[in-house]
Amino acid sequence: MVTTQETRATPPSSHRSRPASPASADEPSLGSRALTLLSESWRPVAVLLALFVAWWFVAWRELVPAYLVPSPGAVAETMVADWAILLEHTWVTTLETIVGFVLAAVIGVATAVLLVYSRTAEKSLYPLILFAQVIPKIAIAPILVVWFGFGMTPKIVLAVLIAFFPVVISAVAGLRSVDPELLEMSATMGASRWKTFRKIRFPGALPQLMSGLKVAVTLAVVGAVVGEFVGADRGLGYVLLLASGNLDAPLLFADLILMSLIGVVLFVLVEVLERLLIPWHASRRGNVALAAL
Length: 293
Description:
By secondary structure, the chain is an all-alpha fold. The protein has a single domain (76-281), classed as MetI-like (MetI-like fold, Orthogonal Bundle), CATH 1.10.3720.10. The chain is 73% helix and 0% strand.
């Protein structure tokens, strides 16, 4: 009788699979994030560089008179020579923009909550909000100057009026986009209205609300500058009027660049805030901060 020995199928303990180390599940390192950021941002940088080269070429070849399109060097010299004055006026416009944007965000979200939770308020206020939006804000600016004087108040109010509408619309759309089954389940479990709003409605509305805030923050810059056009002795809008009246093209271009920088920086700050508040949303997955740039 021949006996056969069964082959051992169990591998030695030294060759058994081991659980993955915690390091393998970690997020990408800082270096990999930097490389990802560079890979995502080189295209807009290349476009900006191409526009700068085109601007320099037009000025160098004098294809357009210098009093219409100054050279980049002349604009840079103006910014360096008048940096103290430009910095002071930039700070005034930035402060007006930030205050107006914050007020528009707070009032807009509160109004959206009122419209969503009250059918009567929606029927009463929504047509008035729409009517106020279609009125050209440049037509309201002189009235605000008459009411509030030549200080910062009319500029802030105009920034609020321009930035208010996108905040309200996005917040209302976001609050109404919440899954009704979640609201029914919350009511079945005995959650209060405040707890349902804090735990379900508001977090669910954040993606659309943040989109509205990014639009509003750029419009707030427009509102502040338009208010400075009508009546002001400080701010980038005031500098723009002076440069235009004196046909000072380098100062005019320097002022426009600073206005654009204010809007870009504030937009980026809202973008970073969005990433911090809703990292779980599908629109944020796989993105890096400032990748939109």
